[in-house]
UniProtKB/TrEMBL annotation:
EC number of this enzyme: 4.1.1.20
Ranges for domain Orn/DAP/Arg decarboxylase 2 N-terminal: 53-290
Cofactor requirement: pyridoxal 5'-phosphate
Pathway(s) this gene product operates in, as recorded in its UniProt entry: Amino-acid biosynthesis; L-lysine biosynthesis via DAP pathway; L-lysine from DL-2,6-diaminopimelate: step 1/1
Keywords carried by this UniProt record: Amino-acid biosynthesis, Decarboxylase, Lyase, Lysine biosynthesis, Pyridoxal phosphate
Residues holding substrate: 286, 325, 351, 379
Protein's UniProt keywords contain Lyase: yes
Gene3D superfamilies: Alanine racemase, Lyase, Ornithine Decarboxylase, Chain A, domain 1
Source taxon at top rank: Bacteria
Gene: lysA
The UniProt record lists the keyword Amino-acid biosynthesis: yes
Protein name as annotated: Diaminopimelate decarboxylase
Oligomeric and partner information: Homodimer.
Protein family per UniProt: Belongs to the Orn/Lys/Arg decarboxylase class-II family. LysA subfamily.
Length: 421
C-alpha cells in the first residue's frame, strides 16, 4: 500500500494542499493550471518556502552567534532569480568558479558578500573575482596563493580563507563526501598550517580565516561538530567558515536534523572551541533550496508488466541526482495523491539508469496524468543537461496563487545555438 496523503504532503513545500478534486495546490497554484500554462517538465518553486528557509538559517544563526553570516551555496540552484531572492533575504553568496560568479553579479549581488570557491580555479576566474571585488576567496591549493599574489595589485589587500580537509568522512554518498583523507578538495591539516604561515606573511593577501566543508546530504550533526573542532585547532582567526552539507528530507524515512538542531550543534561546538569575537559563516545549499522545489512531469506511456513502467516526459535530463548518487525521490500522481501500487517511474532518456524512482507507489497512473516529484529544488536545475536533445525545463516561482516563470524552457533553437556551420 502506498504512502498516505499526509505522508506525501509532508514532503512538499509547507502549505501544499489538495483542492476539492484532490489535485495538488502548491503556494496557492493548482498544478493542473501550472502544467497547462508552463508545460512539462517544469520546476516549480514555492517562493515563500524558500524565503522561510533562508530566514530560519539567517535568524537562527544570528540568534545563537551574533557575529555570523549565512552564505547560499549557489551551486545548488544557480539562477539569477534565486540569487536575487536570497541576497534580498540578506544572505551572502558562495560561488564555485567564474560562471556562478558571473551569474551572481548579473543578479546584482553585492560583490563584497561573495565567497569564491573552486579546487581548480583558473587565472581568468581568479582575475574576475579580484576585479569584481569579491569579499572572500577561498584558497584550495598553493597555486591559488601564487596566482593571487600576482593578480592582486594596488592598495587593496584581498581577503582569503584557507580550506582544510580535516579527515572526516561523513555517512553520505562517496560522490558528495569531501572532508575525508584523500579528498581532492582543500589542504590537509599540515599543508593548511604551511599555507596559513605563508599567508600571514603576505603583503597583498589578507588571511581572514579558515574554511571547511565535509560533504553533502549529511543526516547527523556529529560530523559537523568534529569539523568545527578541527578548524578550532588551527589557531585564532577572524572568520571560521564551516561550510554546508546538512541533508534534506527526500523520503519518509529520512530524518535530517532540523535547521535549529544543526545550528545548536554547530554553535555549541563553536562556544567550546572558537574565539568569542570570531565570525562564524555557514554555506547551506541543498537544505536551503531542496524542499521548496517540485518537478511536474506528464506521463507519456504506461507499460503494464512486471514491473509496471510509468514513463514521463523528463528524467535524467532534469534530475541527475538519482543516476549520480542514487538519491531516492518519492512521487505521486498529482491528481490522485497517495495510495497506489509500486511502479518504476522512469524518464525518456536512452539509458536503463534513467530511473526517477524505483518501486514508487502511484495510484492508477495513465498516459496524460501529471506526476509531481517533491524535493527537487537542489542540484536538479544545476545538473540539468540536454541528453537526447532534452530541453531544460522552465523554473516557475509561485506565491499566493500567482505564478511567474523566472527561467524559460529551452527551445530547439537553443540546442542549435552553439553549433557552427
Ligand atoms: C564549499 C562548499 N560549500 C557549501 C556547499 C553546499 O553543500 P550542501 O548543498 O550540501 O549544503 C558545497 C557543496 O558541495 C561546497 O562545495
Amino acid at each position: 500500500m502506498g504512502a498516505s496523503q499526509q505522508e506525501l504532503l509532508s514532503l512538499f513545500p509547507p502549505g501544499t494542499v489538495l483542492d476539492r478534486d484532490g489535485t495538488l495546490v502548491i503556494a496557492g497554484c493548482s498544478v493542473t493550471d501550472l502544467a497547462e500554462r508552463f508545460g512539462t517538465p517544469a520546476l516549480i518553486v514555492d517562493e515563500a518556502a524558500l524565503r522561510g528557509r533562508a530566514r530560519r538559517y539567517a535568524d537562527g544563526l544570528a540568534a545563537r552567534w551574533a557575529n555570523s553570516r549565512v552564505a547560499f551555496a549557489s551551486k545548488a540552484f544557480p539562477c539569477t532569480a534565486v540569487y536575487r531572492l536570497l541576497a534580498a533575504e540578506g544572505l551572502s553568496i558562495d560561488v564555485a568558479g567564474g560562471g556562478e560568479l558571473a551569474l551572481a553579479l548579473a543578479a546584482g549581488v553585492d560583490p563584497a558578500t561573495l565567497v569564491v570557491h573552486g579546487n581548480a580555479k583558473t587565472d581568468a576566474e581568479l582575475a574576475l573575482a579580484v576585479q569584481a571585488g569579491a569579499g572572500l576567496i577561498v584558497i584550495d591549493n598553493f597555486d591559488d596563493i601564487d596566482r593571487l599574489e600576482q593578480l592582486v595589485t594596488g592598495d587593496r589587500r584581498q581577503s582569503v580563507l584557507v580550506r582544510v580537509t580535516p579527515g572526516i568522512r561523513p555517512d553520505t554518498h562517496a560522490a558528495v563526501s569531501t572532508g575525508q583523507e584523500g579528498s581532492k578538495f582543500g589542504l590537509t591539516l599540515p599543508q593548511a598550517r604551511k599555507a596559513i604561515a605563508r599567508l600571514r606573511a603576505s603583503d597583498v593577501l589578507r588571511l581572514d580565516g579558515v574554511h571547511v566543508h565535509i560533504g553533502s546530504q549529511i543526516l547527523d550533526t556529529e560530523p559537523f561538530v568534529r569539523a568545527v573542532e578541527a578548524v578550532a585547532d588551527l589557531g585564532t582567526f577572524d572568520v571560521y567558515n564551516v561550510g554546508g552539507g546538512l541533508g534534506a528530507r527526500y523520503t519518509y524515512g529520512d530524518t535530517p536534523p532540523s535547521v535549529e538542531e544543526y545550528l545548536d550543534a554547530l554553535v555549541d561546538a563553536a562556544r567550546r572551541g572558537l574565539p568569542r569575537g570570531a565570525r562564524i559563516m555557514i554555506e547551506p545549499g541543498r537544505s536551503l533550496v531542496a524542499e521548496a522545489g517540485v518537478t511536474l512531469y506528464r506521463v507519456a506511456t504506461v507499460k503494464h508488466g512486471e514491473p509496471v513502467f510509468v514513463a514521463v516526459d523528463g528524467g535524467m535530463g532534469d534530475n541527475l541526482e538519482v543516476a549520480l548518487y542514487g538519491q531516492r525521490f518519492e512521487a505521486t500522481v498529482a491528481t490522485r495523491v497517495g495510495g497506489g501500487d509500486p511502479c518504476h517511474l522512469v524518464g525518456r532518456h536512452c539509458e536503463s539508469g534513467d530511473l526517477l524512482s524505483v518501486d514508487v507507489p502511484l495510484r492508477d497512473p495513465r498516459p496524460g496524468d501529471l506526476i509531481a516529484v517533491p524535493v527537487t529544488g537542489a542540484y536538479c536545475y544545476s545538473l540539468a543537461n540536454n541528453y537526447n536533445g532534452a530541453l531544460r525545463p522552465p523554473v516557475v516561482f509561485c506565491r499566493d496563487g500567482e505564478a511567474r516563470a523566472v527561467v524559460r524552457r529551452e527551445t530547439y533553437d537553443d540546442l542549435r545555438r552553439r553549433d557552427l556551420p
